[in-house]
Inverse folding.
């Protein structure tokens, strides 16, 4: 399953997301969700326990001026990569 986090982690139910994410899932952080990938953040500490692979949409990172502040433990993806993730997973859960 592809999980997409669009909202700021301050306005998201990360605990439930962590319960729902399984091995083999992907979690894409986009729009204000990219804030969850900030190095040293509480949200990133929570998401580091996630069984899903963490991705961040590079265009949204750039648009928010956060380049260089994103954890190296989160993989960066462009829009083409976003499409690839969408094709890989038949089901999607929006957070």
């Amino acid at each position: 399953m592809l999980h997409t986090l669009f909202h700021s982690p301050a306005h998201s139910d990360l605990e439930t997301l962590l319960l729902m994410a399984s091995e083999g899932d992907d979690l894409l952080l986009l729009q204000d969700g990219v804030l969850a990938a900030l190095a040293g953040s509480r949200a990133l500490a929570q998401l580091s326990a996630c069984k899903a692979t963490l991705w961040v949409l590079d265009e949204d990172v750039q648009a928010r001026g956060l380049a260089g502040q994103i954890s190296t433990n989160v993989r960066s993806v462009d829009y083409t990569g976003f499409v690839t993730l969408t094709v890989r997973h038949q089901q999607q859960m929006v957070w």
